[in-house]
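User: Modeling request: complex.
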Amino acid sequence: MLSMFSDFSVKRVVVVGLGYVGVPVACSLADAGFEVVGIDVIQSKIDMINKGESPIKGKEPGLDELLKKVHKAGRLKATDDYSVCEGAYAVLIMVETPVDRDNVPRYEALKSAVTSVGENLKKGTLVVIESTIAPRTTTDIVQPILEHKSGLKGGEDFYLVHCPERVAVGVLLKNLKELDRIIGGINEASAKKAKELYKNIVKGKLYLTDSITAEAVKTAENTYRDTQIAFANELAYLCEELGIDVFEVQKLVNTSPGRQMLLPGAGVGGHCLPKDPWLLLYGSGKTFQPKLIPTSRHINDSMPHHMVSLAEEALTQSKISPHGAKVAVMGYAFVEDSDDVRNTPALPIIDHFRRRGIEVVIHDPFVKGVEGIGLTKNLNDAVGGADCAIFVTAHSRYKNLKLKNLLQKMRTPIIIDGRNLFDRKKCIKEGFVYKGVGKKH
Ligand SMILES: NC(=O)c1ccc[n+]([C@@H]2O[C@H](COP(=O)([O-])OP(=O)(O)OC[C@H]3O[C@@H](n4cnc5c(N)ncnc54)[C@H](O)[C@@H]3O)[C@@H](O)[C@H]2O)c1
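Assistant: Request completed. Predicted assembly structure:
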């Protein structure tokens, strides 16, 4: 496996986990001149990369082209064989780090990857954890496994840092290149070593700190966003009660200096925001009881259920019996113009109606083939004969929908707007029953 590349003078970097983070990182490092080997446990991803194809669908500007370019140049390969870590300049780990139903971190993927890296680790290699992890994970979990498996000493024989990733789906390459990064070393030498690597692909500032601080920074920045969204969602509930429009309120709040209120919506999804607050809090509570962060999580988790309530109110108002009713869920990805469905707020909505025996058709222009979900890319199939169209995702396609066409195709003209896609007054004028998050009902 070490002979994957012919030129041994070029530094080899191994990227473990070829997902939304791993693919752009691997491509960027390869484009910067490194010989990059990606490792994954999913054979189809390995095959795609080795054919020069990106396993990530949805709009990711520049990624397909970059992957083709570095593949053609022979600087990016993929495998499931960890022996490529032997003698590598750096090994970057970016596998998934979810939490379970009790909000406890599930580190199976991380521990498995770290174990395999440890078994193949040689002196002088830099190991980077890019996955988002709870404070103390680098020193309390990762370092002991690496040391145990390799027989080497962290900070002396090998370098170890946590350099959390800040990319977002839809702007993966742009964020990777432009955003500042935090590099948290288990010691100063490790942090400095990692800076040498990252300055090849990051134009933003590189801030050096310790690994626990870096872990806290990453989980805190997403927690901060989650609590801000929770504020917007709570205000949406309040505005509905007041009979005013939260989006108008938000716009006007932001005319006050220093206010940057976010938007409310149908729910918070993705691999990061719904779990990073729990990672931040993991192991806390010994000397204080966190209140704001868990409450914010619960408010955001309530939004899909609120969408369901709005839909049920509208169906009752339109005298539609659940028996024989058809609901169209518009958007399955958690974020606009993406194929990322992780923790999508669409799922609790779909589950609810299916449990009630109501026919649910799901439309998404980007997502394909989610097992057992029953999804169409054909808009007419979704809204045709529907009694209620529930807009969960702000895909660009929906923003340009013609209300008249929608009206003609639906059996009952009900719009539930979870993303402020439509003008309430216009919808009502066209003959729709319209209910939107944070709007007058
Ligand atoms: N998606 C984002 O926008 C984003 C942003 C910032 C940080 N993060 C963090 O980065 C990490 C990765 O996120 P992602 O979105 O890329 O996840 P992902 O699920 O898209 O990718 C993870 C990849 O790791 C692979 N994998 C799992 N176990 C493995 C093993 N033992 N060996 C090799 N490969 C293995 C999986 O098959 C998968 O392809 C997470 O900790 C996440 O919280 C993600």
